[in-house]
Amino acid sequence: MRSIEVIASEVFEQNWREDEHGGYMLPNQKVYPNQWLWDTCATALGLRHIDPNAARSSIDRLLSAQWSNGMIPNMIFGDESISWHYPALWARPKTGAPKHLQTSGITQPPLIAEAVYKVGEKLQIDNKQNWFNIVIPKLVSYHNWLLSERTADNSSLVSLVHPWESGMDNSPVWDDFAKKALKKTAIFSTALQHLRHDTAKVGLNSDERSSGDESLNMGLLMQKLRLKGYKPKNALLIEDAGFNAIFVRANMYLLKLCEVSGNELSEGFTRRVYDHAEAYEDLWDEKTGMYSSRVTVTGERIPIKTVGSLLGLYATSGSVERAERLANHIAESLSFNLPYGIPSVALDEPTFQRSRFWRGPTWTITDSMIADGLEQYAIPNQEVREKIVKRVVQFGPYEYHDPLSGNGFGASNFSWTAANALDISYS
After folding, report:
1. What residues are labeled active site?
2. pLDDT tens sequence across 214-248
């Protein structure tokens, strides 16, 4: 049986690309032929153990795609763009997008600050200091954009404008909104199935991907945003629990970056960072003992138990009592404690589907975050860590896995899956 190091090295070699803008890692060469924001950062956390300079290069290329308003897009297009990844489907004049790269117009979970900090730990001291000095202003601009352009009046929480921004594309958290907000017809949904790259072209099983209706909804919403020039202040939709947990953590790492490098943040910015962390705790639902997303306009809670509900452990902003309650959910066999990992939707939720993308399968990225969070609270995490390595070694570095059987789903030779397992093995 191959070791995690061998598996990861083979995946990295297969998915690494270079162009005039720098080197970067594809999530998978057939299904995802572009650079993605949170994939880049999650992969860098594993890649740093083998090649920290490559990890740095991939982050640098990501940051080079920053818009003039501070936004960092979820996709930077490559030469083989396909399906929803066609640059023409996203292009819109006068948006502040960079001239030298083609990008999407929305963002993704902001893992960059932590990736920069941890990759920096592997660099020589002079290189690290110089890099931090270059990167920190870009991170401040990005975080400031989230805190200003993506917060509703009277709220410090970040609101998302599209399910893809959550990173958990077809999570049931977005179901009711999609049904109410978008009109669709069966004929469009059926036609889309024949045009999709992942199922129609690559041949992935349609039962493992977003459904036709889900994809149509997301595509239509994307076009609405594009036609508005990606200025969505009047289109903020959901205060997503998972995204905001990741942003709490990212802000803390930005503060750490500034501390170790001698860079200073303004008092106003620092205050907003702490206001956001405090506001995140408002998503705590005492009745369920978990964090839950909210509809931005109405404040209505979305009480669906997903892996995003558990990421308060990763944020590490809550009390020990709250962390222990979250840990109890992870230990519950009827919801999150499954044989091969933590499901993206709890087993006892009506929307659970063991093979369909973010509606049930287990993902190494979120399991790794939870394992890290448990460690921060000094709560045993060995079982979560062991399940990550177990399924990757036994079934391969697939995009996601069946939490009940371990079978791999989606794209094979997936970069962050290999990287997460590698990082776990080193730590």
Report:
1. 169, 399
2. 777 777 788 888 888 887 666 788 999 999 999 99
- Burial of 79: CB neighbours in 10 Å, binned 0-12, 13-18, 19+: exposed
Q: Say what the pLDDT of residue 196 is.
A: 54
Q: How far apart are CA 43 and CA 41, in angstroms?
A: 5
Contacts of 223 (CB under 8 A, 6+ apart): 89
Alpha carbon distance, N-terminus to C-terminus of the chain = 21
What's the CATH class of domain 4-426?
mainly alpha
Q: What pTM does this model have?
A: 0.94
Token pair belonging to 193: 């199935």
What is the 8-class DSSP label of residue 308? G
DSSP letter (8 states) at residue 359 = S
Concatenating the DSSP letter of every residue in 337-404 gives -BTTB-BSB-TTSTT--TTSTTSS-B-HHHHHHHHHHHHHTT---HHHHHHHHHHHHHH-S-SEE-TT
pLDDT band at residue 348 using 50, 70 and 90 as cut-offs: very high
Give the single-character DSSP code of 68: T
